[in-house]
Design goal:
5-stranded parallel beta sheet; 18 helices; single chain; 35% helix; Fumarate Reductase Iron-sulfur Protein, Chain B, domain 2; FAD/NAD(P)-binding domain; iron; Helical_ferredxn; alpha/beta
C-alpha cells in the first residue's frame, strides 16, 4: 500500500470546492462542497506516513490520522471509518469545525512549500460516506447493566461520555435546559460551519442507542416544572457527570456600556440559529438581535467573534467591522475563518480597543483607541499598550461583545456549597479520576478546563466516562461483598 502514499511531491494541496463569497453571503449553508471520491483519495495519498505522526500528536483525541488517510487513499472507506471513529465519537463534527490549521494540519511535517494534507476535509468525507452507506450503527452494549448515570449537559463533552457509558451497558440519562441537544453545536456555531441536520442526525442515532434525553430540564436547587434539583439527580442515579460547559459571557465596561444595541455574542448567535431552525424569536423580529441594515462592530478576536461577523454579513448588515486589540498574527481565531470572513466583506480593525460607547439611549458609535504591541508577558504573549492621543470613533448601530465565556456559579445555583471551584469558577476535579469534591459526581469539558475547543470537550468526556465506569464497577463489587 505504500506506493499509494507520499504523493505530496506530485499532487498539490486542494480543499473541497468552496462556494463563491457572493453566493454564500446570502444563506447559512456550509461553504464547502463534499469531496468527490477521486479527490478525497488523491488528497489522502499526499500523506507522507512519517514515523512520528505529529498530526496525531497534536490532535487532542490522538486520532490515528495517517492510518485512516492510507485507508482512504486505497478506497477502503469502511475501514477508514472504523479507524476514525475508534478515537473520535463525532468525527463528522470535528472535521467541520476543528481549527485544523492550529492542530493536526498545522503540525503536518510535509516539507515547506508543499503544504499540509487536508486532514479535516478528508475526516468529514469519511464519516459522511459512512452515514450515506449505513455503516454508522447505534450503540449495542454486549450486556445491559442495572446501574444508571446522569449526564448534565447535552453538549459535545456530555454526549461523548454518554456514548462511552452506553457502550458499557449503563442506563444513560442526559439532562439539558435547552430544547435540542448539542449545546453550542446547535445554538452557538452557525450553520455555515456546521449545518444543524448534522447534529440532528447524530441525535437520532443516540436515541436509537438507548440514551434517554430529558430536554428543557435545567438543574437547580429545587424541583420544578422545567427543572430538577441536583440533590434529586444524585439520589436517582448511581453516578453523575457535570458537563455543562461555560455560558456566562464576559462583559466590558466603560462609558455607555449599558446603551441599547450592545448585545452579547451568545444571545446574538442563539437567536440567529433558532431562526434558521424555524423558531419564532421576538428579539430577532423586533431588530434587537438582527443585524439587517445596520453598521455592526464586533469586539473580540476568537472563533466566536468570527461566527458573529460572518452571521451579520448573512443577515444583511450595511457594514461589519471586527475590532481587535492585537494584530493578525496574534489573533486567537482560526486563520482560515479570518480569511473566509474577509472574502465575505468583513473589515478587520487591528490593534484597536474600545474605550467608550457613544449615543443617547441607543449606541451610535464605538470610541476606540489604537494599540501597539509591547514586550512578551509571563506567558510569552506580547502585551498591548495604548497609543497616546490616538482615539477615534467607529460608526455602529449594533455592537456585539464576543469576549469569551466564564463558568456560571454552579454551587450557588444548585445549592451545593461543598462543590469546590477554582478561583476562576471552574469545577475542581481530581485530574486522574475526574471526580469532584462530591463522591460519585464527576465533571469534564469546559466547566473544568475553561472555554476551549469542541475536540477537547470530546476528549474529556471520553476520559471521564472511562473513570466513571471504573468507579462504578468498584462500587458494585463493594456492594456485592457487603451483601454476602
Amino acid at each position: 500500500m505504500a506506493e499509494r502514499m507520499l504523493k505530496f511531491v506530485s499532487v498539490a494541496q486542494e480543499q473541497p470546492d468552496k462556494r463563491a463569497a457572493e453566493a454564500r453571503r446570502n444563506d447559512f449553508n456550509e461553504i464547502y462542497a463534499e469531496f468527490v471520491p477521486a479527490k478525497a483519495e488523491a488528497q489522502a495519498s499526499r500523506c507522507s506516513q512519517c514515523g512520528v505522526p505529529f498530526c496525531s500528536v497534536h490532535c487532542p483525541l490522538g486520532n490515528n490520522i495517517p492510518d485512516w488517510l492510507m485507508m482512504t487513499a486505497a478506497g477502503r472507506m469502511e475501514e477508514a471509518y472504523e479507524l476514525s471513529s475508534a478515537t473520535n465519537t463525532f468525527p463528522e463534527i470535528c472535521g467541520r469545525i476543528c481549527p485544523q490549521d492550529r492542530l493536526c494540519e498545522g503540525n503536518c511535517v510535509i516539507e515547506e512549500g508543499f503544504e499540509s494534507v487536508t486532514i479535516g476535509a478528508v475526516e468529514r468525507y469519511i464519516t459522511d460516506t459512512a452515514f450515506d452507506n449505513g455503516w454508522v450503527k447505534p450503540v449495542k452494549p454486549v450486556a445491559e447493566r442495572d446501574g444508571s448515570v446522569a449526564i448534565i449537559g447535552a453538549g459535545p463533552g456530555g454526549l461523548a461520555a454518554a456514548v462511552q457509558l452506553r457502550e458499557q451497558g449503563y442506563q444513560v440519562h442526559v439532562y439539558d435546559r435547552y430544547d435540542r441537544i448539542g449545546g453550542l453545536l446547535m445554538y452557538g456555531i452557525p450553520g455555515f460551519k456546521l449545518e444543524k441536520d448534522i447534529v440532528l442526525r447524530r441525535h437520532k442515532l443516540l436515541v436509537e442507542s438507548g440514551i434517554q434525553f430529558h430536554l428543557g430540564k435545567g438543574i437547580g436547587d429545587a424541583d420544578g416544572a422545567d427543572s430538577i434539583a441536583f440533590s434529586t439527580l444524585r439520589a436517582r442515579h448511581d453516578g453523575v457527570l457535570i458537563a455543562t460547559g461555560v455560558y456566562r459571557s464576559r462583559d466590558i465596561g466603560g462609558p455607555g456600556a449599558g446603551l441599547g444595541g450592545i448585545v452579547r455574542a451568545l444571545d446574538y448567535l442563539t437567536a440567529s440559529n433558532r431562526v434558521s431552525l424555524g423558531d419564532k424569536v421576538a428579539q430577532y423580529d423586533n431588530g434587537e438581535l438582527n443585524a439587517a441594515g445596520k453598521s455592526v462592530v464586533v469586539i473580540g478576536g476568537g472563533d466566536t467573534a468570527m461566527d458573529c461577523v460572518r452571521t451579520a454579513i448573512r443577515q444583511g448588515a450595511k457594514s461589519v467591522k471586527c475590532l481587535y486589540r492585537r494584530d493578525r498574527a496574534n489573533m486567537p481565531g482560526s486563520v482560515r475563518e479570518v480569511k473566509n470572513a474577509e472574502e465575505e466583506g468583513v473589515e478587520f480593525v487591528w490593534l484597536a480597543a474600545p474605550q467608550a460607547f457613544e449615543g443617547e439611549g441607543h449606541v451610535t458609535g464605538v470610541r476606540a483607541i489604537r494599540m501597539k504591541l509591547g514586550l512578551p508577558d509571563a506567558s510569552g504573549r506580547q502585551s498591548v499598550e495604548p497609543v497616546e492621543n490616538s482615539a477615534y470613533t467607529l460608526e455602529a448601530d449594533m455592537v456585539v461583545k464576543a469576549l469569551g465565556f466564564d463558568p456560571e456559579p454552579l454551587p450557588t445555583l444548585w445549592g451545593q456549597p461543598e462543590l469546590e471551584v477554582s478561583r476562576w469558577g471552574t469545577l475542581m476535579v481530581d485530574r486522574k479520576t475526574f471526580m469532584t469534591s462530591l463522591p460519585g459526581v464527576f465533571a469534564a469539558g469546559d466547566i473544568v478546563r475553561g472555554a476551549s475547543l469542541v475536540v477537547w470537550a470530546i476528549r474529556d468526556g471520553r476520559d471521564a466516562a472511562a473513570q466513571m465506569h471504573a468507579w462504578l464497577e468498584e462500587l458494585t463489587a463493594a456492594q456485592a461483598e457487603v451483601a454476602e
